[in-house]
Automatic annotation (TrEMBL), chains A, B:
<dbReference type="InterPro" id="IPR014710">
    <property type="entry name" value="RmlC-like_jellyroll"/>
</dbReference>
<keyword id="KW-0418">Kinase</keyword>
<protein>
    <submittedName>
        <fullName>cAMP-binding domain of CRP or a regulatory subunit of cAMP-dependent protein kinases</fullName>
    </submittedName>
</protein>
<keyword id="KW-0808">Transferase</keyword>
<dbReference type="InterPro" id="IPR000595">
    <property type="entry name" value="cNMP-bd_dom"/>
</dbReference>
<dbReference type="GO" id="GO:0016301">
    <property type="term" value="F:kinase activity"/>
</dbReference>
<dbReference type="Pfam" id="PF00027">
    <property type="entry name" value="cNMP_binding"/>
</dbReference>
<dbReference type="InterPro" id="IPR018490">
    <property type="entry name" value="cNMP-bd_dom_sf"/>
</dbReference>
<feature type="domain" description="Cyclic nucleotide-binding">
    <location>
        <begin position="7"/>
        <end position="106"/>
    </location>
</feature>
Length: 184, 184
DNA sequence: TAAAATCTGTGACAAAAGTCAAAAAAGAAG
DNA sequence: CTTCTTTTTTGACTTTTGTCACAGATTTTA
């Protein structure tokens, strides 16, 4: 966790100490839910090993909106900030190890440590950039183009995630992705 | 600007003084470009009055990915952070007044003021939340549903923006939006 | 490893959205 | 006002994607 956080901002020893104090380790097995709709999301999570998906359940259909690969952070920003019950679910697609940071502790640490606040800001810039790119794909590219770009951008992800989950993330039906794959 | 920034974090007088020092006012008339593809984006902008759109130009087609209403911030996060030439264009849809903050100054201020850094972090959380919602609409809803939700969420925007620009933002053709409007 | 469950591929057809062309409407400019 | 320009609407047709049903594969698990 330290190594991958240092790629964003190098934190001093004191800040690390503070942060380490509030971390709690979790283990999930494939299929476990880290966040269920109706729950208030009160943590941010750092995924050490494994793979997660974030999805909405609307009229009986699950729609993936994100995958989380190892060494990255995940939460439901909307529920976390508002304190309202989540609409989102977060589920382990593979057995996973992660650290959680309670919201209350994080806010305290942000106040105490300018460095950590700077880390938070830069992490959010990263996430925003990614999210802007993901959204733009829908207006800029066809289903087939989105798939091709995903393969180029995250070949590892495409290997590890089932066709059905990928299709949902790309905003298309399993059958359509199956056909896209066949014809090239 | 102070009023709308205070809704995010209340900044102390000193920080305000620092920030005010680096602001530069700009006027745009309808049609003016604030950012052109190929330019490196070196500022963040605060829109005081007017209306902007952000769009990509791909094979001769303009595709809108965002609108900026008064009292909000806008930039090309990707170009700003990477220092690479922008792909994005930002254009005034109405005559606009805005303040710009040079990247170099902003980074300096972030270091000097923990408060401003906190402001930045919270602003980014807002932007991320919005962007996540926008992206999710494409996987969750049909063209017609996206349009209906936009009308409910930002009726003001729907009034002020032409059908063509709205359609592009929703990821559909003008003709399709025209038909959606007719049939209800 | 056999049976069950889940996931993927395929075909035939339906629905949604795109394309192209042209007319109508609305807005800007002299 | 009247003309010019841009935007919106409409119709006919095409393409893309979705739907449903079912057959093969693959994976899980007992």
């Amino acid at each position: 966790m330290q190594a991958s956080m240092n790629q964003i901002v190098t934190l001093d020893k004191d800040t690390w100490g503070l942060l380490r104090n509030v971390l709690v380790e979790h283990q999930l097995v494939k299929g476990d839910l880290l966040l269920k709709p109706g729950q208030v999301c009160k943590h941010i999570f750092f995924l050490q090993t494994g793979l997660l998906r974030s999805f909405y359940l609307t009229d009986g259909e699950e729609r993936n909106v994100a995958f989380t690969l190892e060494n990255s952070f995940v939460t439901d920003m909307k529920s976390l900030r508002s304190g309202q019950p989540a609409q989102l679910s977060i589920q382990a697609l593979e057995s996973s190890t992660l650290q959680s940071i309670p919201k209350a502790d994080l806010l305290g640490l942000y106040e105490r440590s300018h460095h950590l606040e700077a880390f938070g800001r830069r992490l959010l810039e990263n996430l925003l950039e990614e999210q802007e790119e993901y959204a733009a794909w829908f207006t800029l590219y066809s289903a087939r183009e989105r798939y091709n770009r995903l393969v180029k951008k995250q070949p590892d992800l495409v290997q590890r995630v089932s066709l059905g989950h990928l299709a949902s993330f790309l905003g298309i039906r399993r059958e359509t992705l199956s056909r896209i794959r066949k014809l090239k």
